[in-house]
Amino acid sequence: MDSKTKSRYEAKAKIIKAMSHPTRLFIVDELSRSERCVCELTEMVGDDMSTVSKHLSVLKNAGIVWDEKRGTQVFYSLRVPCVLRFFSCVESVLKTNAKEQASLVR
Amino acid sequence: MDSKTKSRYEAKAKIIKAMSHPTRLFIVDELSRSERCVCELTEMVGDDMSTVSKHLSVLKNAGIVWDEKRGTQVFYSLRVPCVLRFFSCVESVLKTNAKEQASLVR
DNA sequence: TTTCTATTTTGCCAAATAGCCAAGGACGGT
DNA sequence: ACCGTCCTTGGCTATTTGGCAAAATAGAAA
């Protein structure tokens, strides 16, 4: 594998990696409904605000979300809605796995 | 967030996480074309066979690939083709990011 | 200006991950 | 049976990640 191809896969992996944490997945899901400030997300997630802020910076760094400061708050919103398509596939993987589980028990 | 919802996000994150490594991304891409034995993938990836084998077990564990032993070789193939949809979205994120980069330079 | 509130950054620690090597198991060929 | 090949597992180390708490920053309001 040449280095150009390799760095391309690395760039792609970085974006997927940004989606690979339960809290960040929740945040993306939530932002698909409407924009949210850090304090709202912190409230919903239930972790320390600094932790949530870090998760948001990972998502921002990957280019998945946007942030806009308004007054004293920072609002985040989804920049690339296509990531929502991940969900339906992931659901179907889970369903397929569950089916397999069931057939093993039988 | 109740614990049921939480564990659901954890399960989803696990699947995405399995896709979040450049080598594993490459493998999935490759398996979308045809099944491959570990030795072929090892050859293509260029890492130690044990490393590739471990990556494959992560993918298998997430339910993304299948394995079948035939003779002395183990062939892996894609179990859930919908993961390929990740690629097009990731490409578009990269493109969007590149555009933004360009407009900042301007 | 000072104070308050929302957010980010930093430091630190524990846990998870990725890689290589060595060892071991399974199978086919001789 | 023995050997060689293919693959997986365990052990080790280096690196990354996730979380909290404390300190720093930015803007609003007083």
**Terminal Cα separation of chain A, in Å?**
44 Å
- Proper CATH architecture of chain A: Orthogonal Bundle
One letter per element, helices H and strands E, the order of chain A comes to HHEHHEEH
Per DSSP, the total helix count of chain A is 5
Oligomer state of the chains in this structure: homodimer
Tally of extended strands of chain A?
A: 3
Percent of residues of chain A in helical segments?
Answer: 55-70%
Largest sheet of chain A: 3 strands, antiparallel
What radius of gyration of chain A results from the CA coordinates? Answer: 17 Å
Low-confidence stretches of chain A: none
What does this structure look like?
The structure is a homodimer of 106-residue chains. Chain A is of the alpha+beta class. Chain A has one domain (3-81): Arc Repressor Mutant, subunit A, CATH 1.10.10.10. Chain A has helices at residues 3-18, 22-31, 38-45, 49-62, 84-105; strands at 36-37, 65-70, 73-78. In chain A, strands 1-3-2 form a 3-stranded antiparallel sheet. In chain A, strand 2 and strand 3 form a beta hairpin. Chain A is globular and about 55 Å long. The first copy, chain A, starts with a helix and ends with a helix. The mean pLDDT of chain A is 95. The interface between A and B is large, with 41 and 41 residues. Chain B binds a DNA duplex (30 and 30 nucleotides) through helix 3 and helix 4.
